Amino acid sequence: MPSRPLLAAIAIAFAAACGSSETEATEAPADPASTSSTTTSTTTAPTTSSTVAPEVSTTTVAPDASTTTTLGATPACVRVTDFDDTTWFIVNDGVMGGRSSADGAVDEVGLTWTGTIVTAGGGFSSIRGPVDGELDGATSLTMRVRTDGRRYELLADDATRGQARVTHYAPIDAIGGDWEEVIVSLVGMEPRIFGSLVTAEPFVPDLATQIGVILADGVDGEFEFEIDWIDACP
User: Across-strand partners of 233?
Assistant: First the structure.
């Protein structure tokens, strides 16, 4: 199957929550400096807004026969995505002057997300996609991933009234280097606004609007993250 590029665009407003599926930019966790985006959707900045032409590029990773043994969905779990579509998109730190960059592509391997983190003036990249009922009743996500060993996090937004600017985070405890199945709990996720820890209602999977992965580990340099599939599990 030929590679299909993901969508990319720059944030135009920081009025909604970072990581939101509507008009928001995801933020780095509290330690990295700022936020931005590179998607066809819109994102939000605390005080500035701008419109930038979308930048789209692709990276295709050929399957590795020695490491891509197909694994089935976990029993009783619901397949959220195996990337048969290209609705996922990239959000980077450009809106606050950051210079991190990323590309994404969907092919027979799944989703491949690569790029470079530049901590000066920014320091994060994220990739995310919409959900609509797939997380109902879930308490965790099981993800089949292959990473470079850097410290990635799951991000998630919900439609809970009164906290539209809150994005919830949980660590993705992948070892790195080979395909592995990682379980990420949706219980006790950390709520943040623009990278700062806040007091907020817990994440509600039944009201989930968006999930994604963010890299904001405070380290300059290249990264690579692949996802075969994601399941929502009770």
Answer: 140
